[in-house]
Each structure stands twice: as C-alpha cells, then as structure tokens.
Write the structure tokens for this entry.
Amino acid sequence: MNTLRGQGILLPTGGMFIGYMASDAEWRRIAPFYEHLFRGFLMLSLLEMGMTAAWQIRAFAKVGRFMTSFAIVAPICFSLAGLMAGFLVGLSQGGAFVFAAICASAFYIDAPAACRAALPEVSPGIYLTACLDITSPFNLVVNMPLLYAASGWLYG
C-alpha cells in the first residue's frame, strides 16, 4: 500500500490528471517547463541512478543469476500480455505494439522509484542494475524486434 501512496505513483498520476483537465491555452502556458526542462531533469535522474547502481554493484552479484533471469523473462511476459490485451480490446496493431512496449518497459520506468519508496532497505544496486543494465538494453535490442514480429503474426 505504501507504493500506491508514494511519489513514484502519486506524482505521475497527478500529472496525468492535470494534463487531462488542462485546456489548450493552459497547456501552452506551462509547456515550456515540461517540454524543455524535462530532458535535463531526466538526464540528471538517469545519471544519479547510474551512479548509485555503480556504487552498489556488489549487492547485485549476490543475486545476479536470479535477477538477470527475472530482468529478461519478466519484460517478455509483460509485453506478450500487453500485446494480447491490446489485441483483445481492439487496438490497432501499432496501438497494441506500443501498449506492449510500455508493459515491457514498466519494469525500469517506475520500478526504481517504487522500490526506493516502498523498500528502502533493499540495495539500489540490485534493482537499478537489473533495470538499467539488463532490462533496458534487452528490450531495445531483442524484445522490441521480437514483439514487433509477434504483433505481425497476431494481426497477420
């Protein structure tokens, strides 16, 4: 329950609500902050996460085989479930592919913030290494092309 009340969930949910409620004129007034400063903040956040993972890399070695396996198998399962869900609710092939990609990526988009808030006793070297060094490149190089092929087969 702490995860649902943490900043990792509360802030993005609040941001989506604000975006939904904002008119075009209101969005134009705040767009410079979100469109221009976002990249800088994202870069700093990723830099901080990478440094934290590097400082605590030894913690990953203790659970390396299990976490490496999980960091590869979980995104495959999540992406296939997302692809099937998109197909079943009637999304286009592209829409289902994008939804499946988001499902595969959720492991490294929000998981670090949720883990940090809900499980402060867990070493960030474990979940950050799994997210940034295993899942992210695996998704880009292997899982997304396979997922695209699977979407072609499903929608064939």
Observations:
- The mean pLDDT is 83.
- DSSP finds eight helices and no strands in the chain.
- The radius of gyration is 18 Å.
- The longest helix spans residues 24-55.
